[in-house]
Amino acid sequence: MDISLVTPAGKHSRAGNWTTAARWGRILRDLGHRVTIAQADERCDADMMIAVHAWRSRSSIARFAGAHPDRPLVVCLAGTDIYGFQHSHPQETQMSMDVADALICLHDLVHLEIPKRFHRKLRVIHQSALPLVTPRRPSVRTFDICVIGHLRDEKDPLRAAYAARLMPPESRLRLIQLGKAHNEQWATLARKEMAGNDRFIWRGEVSGGLVRRQLSRSHAMVISSLAEGGANVISEALFAGIPVIASDIAGNVGLLGADYAGTYAAEDTGALAKLLMRAESDPRFLAGLKIQCDRRAPLFSAEREVEAWRSLLLDLAP
After folding, report:
1. pLDDT of 177 higher than 80
2. Are 310 and 268 contained in the same domain?
3. Whole-model pTM?
4. CA angle at residue 75 from 64 to 5, to 5 degrees?
5. Label partner for 245 (CA 20 to 30 A): which of 59, 68, 134, 215?
6. Cα 64 to Cα 294: distance, rounded to the nearest angstrom
């Protein structure tokens, strides 16, 4: 098929939406399809459309559905769709959900967040990751924790830095944060925190290779988000064999499992600090988190993601 893959993120963006679209494009081409990736589709002449983001891609979705109601249309629900736009802009967001033949979600608890009438359309496709090329070599001199993701409100990005301030003087914890500031206000906050917090290093936006290198040198990763549609950075950490410490939001629990021992109440700096202290001081606790992560890792294999797409396309084929 000729497939139009629409994503609100531009080609040179390191945002999750572009990363997801680019990986899906490779999968679909490997399955034998022709794929065009763009921020909008004005032509509406493809055999099928896959749209990342129900609200931001709503114009392309509406045009394609109106021009070809008999052709397959798949919509991926982004975290901002699930936890934001379906409430702030319900008419437009749910229009995209209504006309879709299938709704892709990236974690196992999305059905709890959307109207029941859409449940039959839901398909969970876990985002895949690759194992590290070289073995993990966490720092010996310091206890390194990484935080990976853009600095913006819904990520609560400096929560781990604030928690690092509460560590006891003897702690060797060092927090390395990777990710572009969404605006100058966040950049200023990060620079101010770095100036006043000896444990915190912000390195800004870096390449995917440097992200993976930092993962290989870290003892654990923190994801402190207030809302997530299913963060690929969790897949990366699990496949790299790195324990995760996560806010207890549905998007994280839906990837790590309801029984995961490394979660804390979102925005609770003290609770996060306690988990960081325990991870550093109790090797058995950290090893237990790694065991739990290793058990979840197979969900995020490339083979499993390819098979999920193959199955979906077979089900939707005209």
Report:
1. yes
2. no
3. 0.92
4. 65
5. 134
6. 41
